[in-house]
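Hey all, quick one. A colleague (J.T.) asked me to put the iron/sulfur cluster job into the tracker so the inputs and the structure tokens live in one place instead of scattered across chat threads. No bug as far as I know, just bookkeeping. Sequence used:
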Amino acid sequence: MSSNNILRKVTGDSCYKGSYNMNITYGCSHGCIYCYGVSILSNMRNIRHYAGGSANTGVPKDNLSSILDIQLQQIKKKPVYIRLSTMSDPFQPRLIEQGITQSLFRIFDKHEVRVYILTKGIPNEEIIYLMTKQPHKYYYTATCANISEERWKLFEPGTSSPNLRIQMAQTLKEYGVKVWVDLDPIIPGYDDTEDAMQNTLEKCRMHGIQNIMAAFLFLRTTIKGNMKKSLHPDIYRRIERFYEHGEIAYLEPEKRQGKILNPPLAYQSEKLILLDQLASAKGLSLSICRKKNGSAAIKSRIDLCSSSPLFNS
Ligand code: SF4
């Protein structure tokens, strides 16, 4: 990636082939202890502006919006599909305070783009205004595996509260933005008890959310290390137990990271069937990430996520 490049084209056999990934930062201040980014960055919580070269050669923040503007002008095929953000979060408080995320949304506003947003944060008024002004351009996924406050503070200490995330999804939906709530990552023993699933789904129903996605926590070697360091040993042990006879779920690019574990297939299926039943009883539709839990979803006859909301709406 060069310093004149903030969008990275997705290639290979990815579900998102042909779209562009855009991460505003290296690192993320939300500090989730299960973060995938810690598999790649040694100091994930230390955010550095992102846009090119290596982790140490960030572009000054004022340049990011012009880099995006120029790159969007250069891409011939329209609309340009953008996934924001795949290994960071666009609504980290510092990015909003510094006006960086807003400046990028102003550029989206000018161009023919479709932007798929994945977040545990909350956009500010200007970003909400820009999204609701042209709602057909935006696809908003609030990730929230559990609305429990205790679970939030334990695993995702720097993120916005789960309640706020779901409320924000409702607000955007009311203005015509397509929204999802993604129960990801489901931490076994915490997020997949019947009570936890009922509470989270009920919150979604009350806020008018209809589309739910879900995926279990992938236990990568690096994530295991970070969780072990951050949690009380009893809590860590309780989670690790679910993976002891787990399914090995390699994804091509991550092979170098050693084993990537899912809970055992039968366990995933049992829980996904229950989640599907609870969701249907509330009139919600559930789909499962084919990359992460595709085998369990097929076994349980639950809908797969159809590759991407971006390409199927
Ligand atoms: S919000 Fe996402 S990128 Fe940021 S720390 Fe949490 S899991 Fe990692």
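Adding what we noticed when we looked at it: The chain has one domain: 8-311. Residues 51-58 have pLDDT under 50 and may be disordered.
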